[in-house]
Amino acid sequence: MTDETTRPTTREPDHAIESIFAERWSPRVFTGEAVPEAELLRMFEAARWSPSSYNSQPWRFLYALRGTPEWQTFFDLLVPGNQKWAEGTGALVFLVSSERMKVGDELKPSASHSLDAGAASLAFALQANRQGWHVHGMGGFDRERAPAVLNVPEHHRVEAAYGVGRATPWAELSEEQRAKERPNGRRPITDFAFRGGFPQRQD
Q1: What would the pLDDT profile of 25-44 be if each residue is shown by its tens digit?
Q2: Using an 8 Å Cβ cutoff, are 132 and 40 in contact?
Q3: Distance (Å, whole) CA 99 – CA 60
Q4: Do 163 and 136 contact (CB within 8 A), yes or no?
Q5: Residue 14, burial from CB neighbour count under 10 angstroms (0-12, 13-18, 19+)
Q6: 201: which strand partners?
Q7: pLDDT digits 0-9 by tens, 153-175
């Protein structure tokens, strides 16, 4: 039973896992509280320890704190639909990956740079939750303008954008907002995990 002041918690894993995974979520209503830089750096520290091919660590986090000159530059790269809710976040972050890695003394193309950056992204988001903040990832940003605006070097890819902030308490949300903020589910494991290879097609 959930009262009007508490966000429903209906996410129930099918298998026994650590609670941190099901507890992570991406709100769309934020308080507008600024994220202290020291808090954000703790999140990046968690990302720092993520696994990567050849320990290449291809992730690059570019960030702007609310109330700083860089904020508007980052905010203007988001599509209007994301700007509507991201204006309440306390930090904006862009994740960039390096498409090359050093193997021995050679610089070679990396086949896993996006995968490795994704691992860092999850570590970043999980650490944020542990600190009492929330991260909402976005694919909706100006991909054509972003590299130049963010001064991204050659052979790097802008992977995603993130809003970081303090989620607005459930009791302060409107009914319309609550409908969007209710916990969502996930596809069952049987939809994506197959022993021995993909199932035979049944045409």
Answers
A1: 888 889 999 999 999 999 99
A2: no
A3: 11
A4: yes
A5: exposed
A6: none
A7: 999 999 999 999 998 777 776 77
Whole-model pTM: value is 0.90
Closest residue by Cα to residue 93 from 24, 141, 144, 32: 141
Amino acid at position 80, single letter = P
Q: Which residue, chain included where needed, has tokens 């986090």?
A: 61
Q: What is the DSSP string of the chain?
A: ---TTS-------SS---HHHHH----S-B--PPPPHHHHHHHHHHHHT---GGG---EEEEEEETTSTHHHHHHTTB-HHHHHHHTT-SEEEEEEEESEEEETTEEEE-SSHHHHHHHHHHHHHHHHHHTT-EEEEE--B-TTTHHHHTTPPTTEEEEEEEEEEPBPPGGGS-HHHHHHHSPP----GGGT--TTSSPPP--
